[in-house]
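Re: How this chain folds, sequence and tokenised backbone to follow
Notation: Tokens come from a learned vocabulary of local backbone shapes, not from coordinates.
Start of record: The labelled sequence and token lines come straight after this line.
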Amino acid sequence: MPTVRRPAAQTREHVLSVAHDLFYWNGIRAVGVDRIAAEAEVAPTTLYRLFASKDDLVAAYLARADTHYRAWFRQASADDGRDPRDRILAVFDELIHQVQPDRSRGCPFLMALAEFPNPDLPAHRNAITTKTWVHEQFRQLARELARTRDVPDPDALGSELALIMEGVYATVQSMGVEGPAQQARELVELLLPA
């Protein structure tokens, strides 16, 4: 195999990109470190210099996924002059694009929680951190909406929005994007005051 020389930071990012594709599409426990090293075209010793263990690699994979997910969510819900209601709906419009079968197998954080139920593991903690952050973003958007509309309990509305998002991820796996997931935006519209 030809050796590609990269600075350590680029090598780390390359390995994480390869790990992302393998973990996301095949399952974390189903993919070994040797396969990641082979597909990334790095020596296993290089991989272990970057990540002390598979647990460290998985934690880094989820931290990287978290960074990308937060950027996606922030872009969809950006406070760019739109009404908070429109910003909330935009998240669900973008979610349906995100979960198309050619680019989505579901939520990487939910999958990690299923594979790593032990709350002491870094992978589990990283996934919980992301899920908690998303929930708080919806609560914040609901509070912003409550400044201009009648929202009796913004925190409850935020929780309902997070639950609908989780439902999209859960059902798209088994029933596809044309299943219950396609009803998400309409359901959100019913929850939001006009």
User: Anything to note?
Assistant: The chain has a mean pLDDT of 94. The chain has two domains: 1-51, 55-191. DSSP finds nine helices and no strands in the chain.
